[in-house]
Amino acid sequence: MKEFGVFLPIANGGWIVSRNTPVLDGGWAQNREAALLAEAEGLDFVMAMGKWRGFGGDTGHWGHSLEAVTMCAGIAAITSRVKVWATLHAILHNPAVAAKMIATLDHISGGRAGLNIVAGAYRGEFEQMDAWDASMTHDARYDLTEEWTQIVKRLWREPKVTFKGKYFDFEDCVSEPKPLQMPFLICAGQSRRGFEFSVREADGCFIGGRDEAEIRGASRRAKALWTRARCWACCKAMALRATP
After folding, report:
1. Does the pTM exceed 0.85?
2. Closest Cα partner for 98 from 110, 112, 88?
């Protein structure tokens, strides 16, 4: 399945670091216009990244940004068809809070919500708000994100959730209302661990590269991991059915 969409200009400078491109201020008016154009042109989705600190320098790139979920709620209210995908960081947002936020977005949009899950990689973005654990490795952040995602999905499906993990301890947790339909989950992790997370927990993953060959290689790695994961899941299911 192929879907085409727009990454909204939620932060100043948009997607090109330049002194010469037209000014994108990251404000509501430009995001509203981009979303309405995407809907009018028949695109499938609009997506907003989550950004909490820019990169400074001459352009102050991404130094000004809106918050993704609340902005997407505004987009949802003025559109009727295009899917609305927002970004949350697992190391920053409690999974019960995240589940409620995206369920609310799904109700506002009439079942068009999606969630881009980010493990969190830019240290300066989270260290400033005491949300960065320097002792955690890259893979450990994905371990946390995997637990986080499992809790969010269960809260969307189950009346009550008890979860005892390495990073989260939930007891009889409730989250109502449920989404109108399960939000579409995506991730953009490009590492092996990131791909493993996307294959197990997400509905799709963004891939990229510096040229066509690199993009093709990333796509093949993701597909190979997905194939192995599916084979493992099938074998596990068969073993469980065969158990007396």
Report:
1. yes
2. 88
CB-CB contact of 119 with 195 (8 Å): no
Domains of the chain are 5-206 (3.20.20.30)
Helix, strand, coil percent content, the chain, rounded in steps of 5? 45, 15, 40
* pLDDT given for residue 1 in this prediction: 66
How many residues would you count in the chain?
A: 244
Q: Where are the beta strands (DSSP E) in 49-121?
A: 83-89, 113-118
**Residue 160 CB neighbour total at 10 angstroms:** 12
Short-list 58, 52, 68, 77, CA closest to 17: 58
- Taking only the tens place, the pLDDT of each residue in 169-224 is 999 999 999 999 999 999 988 788 888 898 889 998 887 777 888 778 777 777 77
